[in-house]
Design goal:
Layout: H1 2-7, E1 13-15, E2 27-31, H2 36-41, H3 52-60, H4 66-76, E3 78-82, E4 84-88, E5 103-104, H5 107-113, E6 119-123, H6 125-134, H7 139-142, E7 145-149, H8 161-172
Parallel strand pairs: 2-3, 2-6, 6-7
Antiparallel strand pairs: 1-4, 4-5
Length: about 180
């Protein structure tokens, strides 16, 4: 009886956010899909243990309330988005993203409108893998430089913060 009850549970799809970007963005940072805390707060990287905003404060001066941090990224030339527009993912772990339900964001349209983006950074291995697996772009869009950076997620605790910061700095600053 318990197994039958479990099979009736329907896990809803998570839907991502629109991009944070200005027309003259030079760098695009991509996560996989917002986690539960981010979805609840309607903010990118809302989990208090996620190092993304801490790193961005170090690199771009992004601090203060959420909108002020987003504005600082835009001023620095950074666009922020996720690879997926939607997917079933129970919880917040990237490993739980169900690929068969994954829908990519419209990168062809986005990159056509943001022609100055010369660098696409992936916040972790999962974002990079998802992009390569499900995003289809023409050769000119794929010609942009790609960098996979260490995940800022608290789930990736094997790399110390200082090392993550240095890796992000080496790619973002000066790009």
């Amino acid at each position: 009886m318990q197994d039958e009850e479990k099979s009736d549970v329907v896990i809803e799809s998570s839907t991502g956010f629109p991009p944070i970007a200005r027309h003259d963005a030079r760098i695009l940072i991509l996560g996989s899909l917002p986690g539960q805390r981010s979805l609840q707060a309607a903010q990118y990287y809302a989990h208090p243990q996620n190092a993304f905003w801490r790193i961005m404060q170090e690199l771009t001066g992004a601090e203060g309330p959420y909108q002020q941090r987003c504005d600082a990224l835009v001023e620095y030339g950074i666009a922020l988005w996720d690879v997926l527009a939607e997917s079933v993912r129970p919880g917040s772990m990237d490993a739980d993203i169900q690929l068969e339900s994954a829908e990519a964001n419209d990168f062809a349209g986005f990159l056509a409108e943001h022609r100055q983006i010369g660098l696409i950074c992936f916040n972790g291995q999962k974002a990079a893998r998802l992009f390569r697996q499900i995003v289809i772009l023409d050769d000119s869009a794929m010609a942009r430089r790609n960098e996979t950076l260490p995940s800022t997620s608290p789930a990736f605790a094997s790399m110390p913060y200082a090392e993550k910061l240095n890796r992000w700095r080496s790619v973002i600053v000066g790009s």
